[in-house]
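in:
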């Protein structure tokens, strides 16, 4: 009986605490140009094109955009972090570094040069090299998606122009 009485109040309790489902980010600009041609830049363009209020302009029309996102570097690294007693590799750390800045066509920096870093640890087994290469590719793709989501949140936090 008590459960049935509390159940209709649950949505009100969630609304009162500030809970809200994640929605598409709202940006303070209407158009953006992403002149770079990297994996992160391509995925970012796809995500921005899906936003209802943003127009993604090609690099040739960058000067007509409200803002320009410069991808300064997009680097993938693979570092050995663990060896066994015989000196064979046992663990790698995969890193994806993205350095970017956001500016207006007039040159005003809205987000200064910033670096985002994603890391993943992956074990290595020489008897399953092909499987580990496939896993590495999936991890890099996952890191790229995480970087794009972080970048979208930072773009949404830019104050109005």
């Amino acid at each position: 009986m008590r459960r049935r009485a509390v159940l209709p109040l649950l949505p009100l309790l969630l609304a009162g605490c500030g809970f809200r489902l994640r929605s598409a980010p709202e940006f303070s600009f209407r158009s953006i140009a992403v002149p770079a041609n990297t994996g992160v830049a391509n995925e970012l363009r796809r995500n921005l094109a899906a936003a209802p209020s943003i127009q993604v302009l090609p690099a040739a029309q960058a000067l007509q955009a409200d803002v320009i996102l410069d991808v300064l570097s997009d680097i993938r690294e693979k570092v050995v972090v663990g060896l066994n007693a015989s000196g064979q590799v046992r663990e790698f750390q995969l890193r994806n570094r993205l350095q970017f800045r956001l500016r207006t066509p007039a040159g005003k920096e809205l987000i200064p040069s910033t670096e985002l870093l994603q890391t993943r640890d992956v074990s290595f087994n020489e008897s399953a090299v092909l499987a580990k290469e496939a896993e590495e590719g999936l991890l890099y793709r996952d890191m790229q998606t995480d970087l794009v989501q972080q970048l979208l949140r930072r773009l949404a936090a830019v104050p109005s122009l």
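note: Strands lie at 31-33, 55-57, 67-83, 89-103, 109-123.
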